[in-house]
Automatic annotation (TrEMBL):
<dbReference type="InterPro" id="IPR039383">
    <property type="entry name" value="FHIT"/>
</dbReference>
<feature type="binding site">
    <location>
        <position position="59"/>
    </location>
    <ligand>
        <name>substrate</name>
    </ligand>
</feature>
<keyword id="KW-0547">Nucleotide-binding</keyword>
<dbReference type="InterPro" id="IPR052908">
    <property type="entry name" value="AP-4-A_phosphorylase"/>
</dbReference>
<dbReference type="Pfam" id="PF01230">
    <property type="entry name" value="HIT"/>
</dbReference>
<dbReference type="InterPro" id="IPR011146">
    <property type="entry name" value="HIT-like"/>
</dbReference>
<feature type="binding site">
    <location>
        <position position="130"/>
    </location>
    <ligand>
        <name>substrate</name>
    </ligand>
</feature>
<feature type="domain" description="HIT">
    <location>
        <begin position="34"/>
        <end position="141"/>
    </location>
</feature>
<dbReference type="InterPro" id="IPR036265">
    <property type="entry name" value="HIT-like_sf"/>
</dbReference>
<dbReference type="GO" id="GO:0003824">
    <property type="term" value="F:catalytic activity"/>
</dbReference>
<feature type="active site" description="Tele-AMP-histidine intermediate">
    <location>
        <position position="128"/>
    </location>
</feature>
<feature type="short sequence motif" description="Histidine triad motif">
    <location>
        <begin position="126"/>
        <end position="130"/>
    </location>
</feature>
<protein>
    <submittedName>
        <fullName>HIT domain-containing protein</fullName>
    </submittedName>
</protein>
<dbReference type="GO" id="GO:0000166">
    <property type="term" value="F:nucleotide binding"/>
</dbReference>
Length: 172
């Protein structure tokens, strides 16, 4: 491996819990997100809010503070299976999430999208949209020196904070 290749591979500092998850040690359910929907007691549930069609949840292993996912309650694998009502619902929830994050945390950018299929990095066979807040100067010395990222916001505290903010947000 060349020196460039060695330094271009991102390293991650996992919490002990994430390391097992990343290696496949996950709750024994057919679908993690359906487990969240069904409030299965063996599935960690960080639901912030839900509508008739969709669920908003903190990502259990966030890339940045405020990293949330939005997914349809109906088990869907392919994006093209979304109904117009489901797509509109996810869109409206995305806008609300962005307003909350911009207002409360001064977020100045977002990465928003779906990882569809294993070749795109998708690890859950149930479509879900990621909303990843981006902050000015978020690259720290570990990002620069060792290409490693540390997320300093504990997911369960993020969940508690976002649930409160979500219920307080007034929609037009």
């Amino acid at each position: 491996m060349s020196s460039y290749e060695e330094h271009s591979i991102r390293k991650n500092l996992f919490s002990i819990g994430k390391l097992g998850y990343a290696k496949g040690d996950r709750p024994n359910v057919d679908c993690i997100l359906c487990g969240v929907r069904d409030k299965n007691e063996i599935v960690p549930n960080l639901t912030i809010a839900e509508t008739e069609l969709s669920i908003v949840s903190v990502n259990l292993f966030p890339y940045n503070p405020g990293h949330i996912i939005i997914f349809p309650k109906r088990h869907i694998i392919h994006y093209l299976e979304l109904t117009e009502d489901e797509a509109l619902d996810i869109h409206k929830l995305t806008q609300k999430a962005m307003r909350i994050l911009e207002k409360q945390w001064r977020v100045q950018g977002f990465n928003i999208g779906f990882n569809l299929g294993k070749n795109s990095g998708g690890s859950i066979p149930h479509i879900h949209e990621h909303i990843v807040p981006r902050f000015p100067n978020e690259a720290g010395f570990l990002d620069v020196i060792s290409n490693t990222r540390i997320v300093i916001y504990e997911p369960y505290q993020m969940w508690d904070d976002l649930k409160k903010l979500w219920s307080e947000e007034v929609t037009d």
